[in-house]
Specification:
- With 160 residues, this protein is α/β, with parallel strands linked by helices.
- The chain has one domain: Trna Endonuclease, Chain: A, domain 1 (3-Layer(aba) Sandwich).
- It has six helices and five strands; from the N terminus they run αβαββααβαβα.
- A five-stranded mixed sheet has the order 1-2-3-4-5, sandwiched between helices.
- β4, α5 and β5 form a beta-alpha-beta unit.
Length: 160
Amino acid sequence: MNYYESVVIDYLRADRRVFVNTQCLVQLNSAHNPDTSGPHWYCDALAVDFKTRTVFLCEISYEDRCSTLLRRLRDWGKHWPQVQAAVRRDSLVPADWPFRVWLFVRADRTKYVGEALNKANLDFLGARITSLEDVQPWRYCSWNREPPSEGPEFSAPIAI
């Protein structure tokens, strides 16, 4: 688990319509032992959004070059239909729900990652990119992921 993973997981869970499976095994070939069954990955989080009926394969990186993240996305891109089929099979996702990747990276890397995905012809992954700075717990309400109100509950002056 990387340093920011728990922060992102809390952010995802703050929307009660999103259900999260952390370190979700994506195993292309159904078998008892993923280490001998062929290509497989542990996705940082599988987030199923019941409001939009969308499945997100979430990856979290604070690397400068995001090389590990981009390598993972290229691998998924080579097997995208099989990745979706595997998640549908193992997580019982409805057949008509779309899949997208949701990436959480440093704010200064969002444009770089978007351009790298475009250059690698991975637009079909439908990447949603959120900066790690935007998932800090003080940026949203923990019960509905809405921005905090400016009411007294959040910004009451302190008498000294």
